[in-house]
Write a structure and sequence with these properties.
Blueprint lengths: L20 H8 L4 H6 L16 E5 L19 H29 L10 E6 L5 H12 L5 E6 L9 E2 L1 H4 L16 E5 L2 E2 L3 H8 L5 E5 L2 E2 L14 E5 L24 E5 L15 E5 L5 H7 L7 E5 L3 H5 L14 E5 L2 E4 L2 H9 L5 E5 L2 E3 L22 E5 L7 H18 L6 H8 L7
Parallel strand pairs: 1-2, 2-3, 3-5, 4-6, 5-7, 6-8, 7-9, 9-10, 10-11, 11-12, 12-13, 13-15, 14-16, 15-17
Helix pairs in contact: 10-11
Amino acid sequence: METGSRAGSGSGSDRLSDLPDCLLHCVLSSLRSRQVVQTCLLSRRWRHLWRLVPCLDVDQRDFLVVDPKPEFPGRLGTSDVFAKAQNERLNRVMKRQRSFEDFADSVLPLNGVWPLDAYRLHVAEQSLRKASNRWIRRGLARRPAELGVSYGCGTHHTDPLFSLGFVSGGVGAGAMPLTSCLRKLHLSGLTLSEAFAEELRSECPVLEDMKLVNCHREYTFGGRIASRSLKRLHIEKGNQGYDGCSSFTQFDPRDVPALVSLNLVNVCPPDNEDELQSLAVASIVDPDEDVGPYRFLKSLRNARVLELRSFTTTGLLEDEPQEFRNFHNLRTLILGECDIGDGCQVLRYVLENVPNLERLVLHDCKVGVIGENQLPVAAGTAFHGCKNLKYIQVKYKGDDVPHELVAALTQIAKDVICRTKRNSVGWLDWMRRVVPCRHIV
């Protein structure tokens, strides 16, 4: 650590240690717990500071090291050497695991009383399932406003069971649940109990932010997510995710009246058309089905920012392209890796019908080949939408923009200039300025 003399003060004192405890606790809150505890070696001033840090981030990955398995040499007389190498490696693994257990128990003592602003726990080994339940209970006993629990090992058959009722079970009758102050809940790689939805509704009265990644229910059938305080919801099934993730998406918009932001990744959206009244930002990435996503798009009519990724033409339009006319609040539309149809028909329907669209982003969208009886978009009926369009971004891998898309955007530029009477600026100059696309000629 730098002293004051090295920093140019000439006093020879430790200027960082001169800061008040509240500021040092803020600094330490940005570190993982193992790093925080290690600061006790700096000086007497730091010896006990770590005990009152309001944020705990207990992560087993801080204790893991690369320790490859020994290879069997395949020669006679070497089996004893191989077995010895295996046992030595197993002993090292067990020693690191015990070290992590001791560390977690020390930073989360049974009789700890200081409150926590945030508590995050990451467990990487299946053998620590029972211990992780203990650490979750101890963490929630401090009534944190933020809880993050992730389990990064094995298949869903061995994932630990997580229940808000289980971790809150120690409170007496009539007492507030341990999750009564919880505003942010992030869970990853866990099996959620059958009663999770009901516990969420009854034991988390101020919850605003929930993120579920690769989680599944103990049973496929269970209650829907319901929270009158929930504002941000993220549900994701990763590459190693499980089908049970999709069961969490079957919620009724009336059960989440305050929802402002919704992000669904690689899961099937709800088969529901009721509007999410408070929604402002929505993202649906890699939906599992075609018809379900289209129906749910009707629920997003109040969104100001909408991102759709990996949608088919059917998933975007089905048989009702005029549905886009109901997106009166939409200002930004992002289409990523979507099939925008033969001759960019989806692009045309969107720009014709979204009344207040200001920003359109197209990333690696697929464009179909125009059939014999179809007119190219540039030669068809002129666009009469785009009244407020200010910005179009076109981005393709390798800058290889389909010529059908260039033709469609060229027609947009011509129509905008004719409608706005921009006689002093050529349509090509306008297009080059508004549409960042290298292949416009």
